[in-house]
Backbone:
């Protein structure tokens, strides 16, 4: 049977896929379905039936409900709304919070089994606070359409959805977001700094873009300078959590006589961690010139070398014979990739800490490291993005 977009199907949901959709099967092909839960039977509409091997669909109604289903944490994203009118950005918000973490662990387990080789057990995905998973976003991106409507995009769409709430955002960010009216078409970012001030960054489609504002973020007693539109962790407690996790796996393992590397170092978060653990010969590498400038300032008390370069290019230019201690890798969502993994391996460091925001990219890179003789000593998972499919994993590797 041939199908096309628009066909309605009754489907049994059997699993979760990487990326926040759910798995069903129809006439021998996989169907990726939004807004469902494993164990449910849903009525869904095909949105993409062009491929022979898989289709994509959106759930319209639940025929047999999972015990883990809850009213969506964001009413504007609830299944009771037409799919075209559901706000995006909280793709697991209809699932009981503890079960979200179970499903995230399942995604990691399947990625490790498929790409990293045998024998690795996925960790529990740990909560980092005891709340209900709302009120954590210090950064929110909204969009403005041609009619001046301000809101998030609809899920899997570039259609702007007007909303009356932002439950994942910090209270001040949400209030500021709801106050925005009749802006120029484009994008608006809202960023709350360590002092609680909300900065509004307007990115109009046409016209001059405002210069980057420098803000301050805080991790423990350390202050970090960063562009308001630059990269910093979104969850209010994420940077502290990751700093503590890296600190715990490396405590007592830093040899001050060796050279330590913080790769994809941003504004210097983990370089500061390494320095406080005793690293004295330390280099942080980041491709963003602005981030490197901030890293130089942020790391000035530790006299760290901050280098602007692509990580793969930097590794190929290192002198032979360098005695490498610890390497921290915090790559973007695409992962480090084979060239970087092989470049790090060539340094023969004492230990590698890999901070990952994508389970499949992590699993692929761990597979490459293991093929090169590295052992995965530990894995830790953190639910830094409740009600979304994203989470963070930290891996410690040694030989």
Residues:
């Amino acid at each position: 049977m041939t199908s096309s977009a628009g066909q309605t199907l009754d489907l049994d949901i059997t699993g979760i896929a990487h990326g926040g959709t759910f798995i069903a099967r129809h006439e021998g092909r996989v169907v990726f379905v939004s807004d469902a839960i494993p164990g449910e039977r849903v009525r869904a509409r095909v949105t993409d039936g062009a491929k022979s091997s898989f289709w994509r669909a959106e759930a319209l109604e639940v025929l047999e409900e999972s015990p883990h289903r809850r009213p969506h944490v964001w009413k504007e994203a609830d299944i009771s709304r037409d799919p075209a009118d559901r706000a995006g950005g909280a793709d697991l918000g209809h699932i009981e919070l503890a079960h979200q973490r179970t499903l995230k662990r399942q995604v990691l387990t399947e990625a490790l089994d498929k790409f990293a080789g045998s024998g690795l057990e996925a960790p529990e995905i740990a909560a980092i606070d005891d709340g209900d998973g709302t009120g954590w976003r210090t950064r929110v991106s909204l969009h403005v359409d041609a009619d001046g409507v301000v809101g998030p995009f609809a899920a899997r769409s570039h259609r702007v959805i007007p909303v009356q709430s932002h439950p994942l955002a910090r209270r001040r960010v949400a209030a500021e977001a709801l106050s925005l009216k009749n802006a120029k078409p484009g994008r608006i970012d809202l960023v709350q700094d360590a002092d609680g001030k909300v900065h509004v960054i307007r990115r109009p489609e046409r016209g001059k873009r405002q210069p980057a504002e420098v803000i301050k973020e805080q991790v423990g007693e350390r202050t970090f300078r960063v562009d308001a539109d630059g990269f910093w962790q979104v969850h209010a407690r994420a940077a502290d959590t990751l700093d503590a996790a890296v600190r715990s796996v490396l405590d007592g393992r830093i040899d001050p006589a060796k050279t330590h590397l913080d790769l994809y170092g941003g504004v210097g978060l983990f370089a500061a961690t390494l320095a406080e653990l005793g690293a004295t010969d330390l280099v942080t590498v980041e491709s963003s010139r602005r981030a490197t400038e901030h890293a130089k300032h942020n790391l000035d008390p530790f006299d760290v070398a901050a280098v602007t370069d692509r990580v793969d290019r930097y590794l190929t230019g290192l002198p032979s014979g360098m005695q490498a201690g610890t390497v921290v890798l915090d790559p973007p969502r695409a992962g480090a990739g084979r060239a970087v993994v092989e470049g790090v391996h060539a340094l023969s460091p004492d230990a590698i800490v890999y901070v990952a925001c994508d389970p499949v990219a992590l699993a692929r890179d761990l597979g490459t490291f293991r093929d090169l003789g590295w052992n995965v000593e530990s894995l830790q998972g953190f639910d830094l993005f409740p009600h979304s499919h994203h989470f963070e994993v930290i891996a410690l590797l040694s030989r």
